[in-house]
Design brief:
The chain is α/β, with parallel strands linked by helices. Helices cover 43% and strands 21% of the residues. The protein has 4 domains: 90 residues, no CATH class; 54 residues; 206 residues, Rossmann fold, CATH 3.40.50.300; 99 residues, Helix Hairpins. Helix 3 runs antiparallel to helix 4 and helix 9 packs across helix 10. The two termini are 54 Å apart.
Length: 622
């Protein structure tokens, strides 16, 4: 493989905080590498160093000559007065600079150097740069190219930055949290786009499905060192556990020997002759291993939530609109005890607005929301990250509570609770302003959970959290004895935590799906495939009335059809079962065997068709 990038003995620190020390790795043509580390370990700093946006203390970074490198920052910034299309020409990529050079040449009398510029423009494919920009922006569902940047949402801005990187067609693409603020459709589009291309990748992402499907290698920064795994995320989990088990075993053996050697070291100096100096030196090496950090298995955090009654909340005929945009359209729902609901849907369909109505931060246009007296909300919002920068981390938590009850007379102190969420004792006594973005998110999460709520409402909790923290949070929510609503674009997280979904389709069309995100995705793909096949059949009526909101009552005719379908489906299933039993009996004649073998596929088609129609009708009333 052709080497693209080589990093040798790289060290970076901020004051007395060493992020990584003497790390080395390389990226070759075609490699797709995911970078994993806890928040605060220097993931973003490392990417900024590689993109030449930040300096480093020691080491060497070597790129292949003439390599095109694209960098997607975690939080992209553009001047607000730029339009969407102008933003694609804003960052000084080589192609953009070449276009500007060509334009200056055209404005200069005599056009000096034009022949050379024309050849370079042809080589860099700069002529169709604007066309490529518009094409990728359209694929990312941004079609108003003259819209000012300042009017874009966080998700739209991320898509503009993504287009900005992709149109340069880099050889090596470096991405920091590419799926943050992207909805599920866009995340899946990006997955497919990256898998179609041949570009090399280095990326940081908390989206484990994305990591699994796009990357074929993982590198991990742990305790300032770097570890490499030649496989996807699932392979990494397996091999990392093997490494941890081996490291813990080595530390345990060293501890046993250390106790013996320590006793020898404590004897009078006279008892140690000159020849034993090598043993003394070996003791200090052994001490380093014995005192090395061990990887403790995560203790299950079985927090006792405050009592919650049988009445949680009831939404009764809620309506909410912003101009022509409908968020809720006659929405009614009764939330049950210990329910764990996920909310999914594209950006702009009203997920966060629904949460704010529930929390009393937005008022519905009409309808009523009745919340039970025993409900104690814990609300994690996208805008709630506000701290006194001069406070210590431990003080932020103890200001809320000194202890948290676990039940059965057990309790955790604030420090122990923070430690469970990966804040070391040293970090706990550090100031908030020293925390990384991901560590601040983690601290904010702790402030929500420390209040001991019985109803958690989490709006995009996975953004900027590292994978290790997500695993802790998943475990916490799985054992949480209360109610949970999660709005998230993290498919893996949703699969782990929720038992059903509210799917926001837009214009107030909201469906309740009984299952997790993977169940919903499989059902949706099967339905789309069936509709595609149905549309391809000749002489079939293809035009149906389009409804912006299908949550209505069935007509009398549809109700009769629905009831008849139930009878027909039951009859067809009985017939299918009888045919399958007969075919397996070995008692049929050749003619009977032929007849029943021909009938079975026809029967299956009829069953599929009637079942799909039954599903369509059953969706009308949810």
């Amino acid at each position: 493989m052709v080497p693209y990038l080589q990093v040798e003995n790289l060290t970076k620190s901020f004051g007395d905080l060493v992020l990584f020390q003497n790390i080395s790795f390389g990226i070759a043509e075609g490699q797709r590498i995911g970078l994993i580390a806890k928040n605060g370990s220097g993931k973003t700093t490392l990417l900024n160093i590689l993109a030449d946006k930040e300096g480093y203390d020691e080491g060497k970074i070597t790129y292949r000559r003439d390599l095109r490198v694209g960098y997607l920052e975690q939080s992209p910034h553009y001047p607000g007065e730029l339009t969407v299309l102008e933003a694609c020409f804003y960052h000084g990529t080589p192609v953009v600079e070449l276009i500007k050079e060509y334009e200056r040449c055209m404005e200069t009398p005599g056009n000096p150097g034009m022949d050379d510029l024309l050849a370079r423009m042809e080589h860099e494919k700069a002529w169709d740069y604007e066309r490529r920009a518009k094409q990728i922006l359209s694929q990312l569902k941004i079609r108003d190219f003259n819209q000012p940047i300042k009017n874009l949402s966080g998700g739209q801005l991320k898509r503009v930055a993504l287009a900005n990187v992709l149109i340069t067609e880099p050889d090596l693409l470096i991405m920091d949290e590419p799926t943050n603020h992207l909805d599920l459709d866009m995340t899946e589009w990006l997955e497919e786009y990256l898998n179609r291309g041949k570009l090399s990748l280095l990326m940081v992402t908390h989206d484990r499905y994305f990591l699994d499907r796009v990357c074929s290698e993982i590198i991990e920064i742990d305790n300032r060192r770097i570890y490499s795994y030649k496989g996807n995320y699932s392979y990494y989990l397996e091999k990392r556990q093997e490494r941890i088990d081996a490291a813990n075993a080595e530390t345990a053996r060293a501890n046993n020997l250390y106790r013996t050697e320590l006793e020898w070291m404590r004897r009078m100096p006279q008892a140690r002759g000159h020849k034993a100096r090598y043993r003394e030196e070996a003791f200090y090496e052994l001490e380093k291993v014995a005192k090395r950090r061990t990887y403790d298995a995560q203790v299950k955090l079985d927090v006792k939530a405050a009592y919650i009654g049988s009445k949680i909340f009831e939404a009764d005929h809620l309506c909410k609109s912003f101009g022509d945009l409908k968020i809720l359209d006659d929405f009614s729902y009764i939330f049950s005890r210990y329910e764990k609901m996920g909310i999914v849907g594209n950006n702009g369909t009203g997920k966060s607005t629904f949460i704010k109505i529930l929390m009393g931060l937005e008022k519905p246009d009409s309808g009523r929301l009745d919340i039970g007296e025993t409900v104690r909300f814990g609300y994690y919002s996208q805008e709630g990250l506000q701290f006194d920068e001069q406070m210590k981390v431990i003080d932020v938590i103890t200001d809320i509570a000194e202890v948290i009850e676990l039940g059965n007379g057990k309790r955790l102190t604030a420090s122990q609770f923070l430690q469970h969420f990966l804040f070391t004792p040293e970090t706990q006594h550090s100031y908030v302003y020293k925390l990384s973005g991901g560590e601040r998110r983690r601290l904010y999460l702790c402030t929500v959970l420390m209040r001991n709520p019985n109803f958690l409402v989490l709006d995009e909790p996975t953004n900027d959290l590292d994978i290790v923290t997500l695993q802790v949070l998943e475990e916490y929510l799985q054992s949480f004895k209360g109610c949970v609503i999660v709005v998230s674009h993290d498919r893996y997280f949703m699969d782990k935590v929720v038992d059903h979904l509210l799917v926001f389709k837009g214009q107030g069309d909201i469906r309740d799906f009984p299952g997790n995100y993977t169940d919903y995705r499989e059902w949706k793909l099967a339905k789309e495939e069936h509709e595609r096949k149905a549309a391809a059949k000749p002489k079939e009526e293809k035009t149906k009335r389009v409804r912006t909101n299908e949550r209505r009552r069935m007509t009398f005719k549809e109700r009769k059809e629905f009831e008849q379908l139930e009878v027909e489906i039951a009859g067809l299933e009985s017939e299918k079962k009888a045919i399958e039993e007969a075919l397996c009996s070995g008692t049929l004649s050749v003619d009977e065997l032929t007849e029943k073998s021909k009938r079975l596929p026809v029967l299956n088609d009829e069953l599929d068709e009637k079942t799909m129609r039954w599903l369509e009708l059953s969706e009308i009333e949810g």
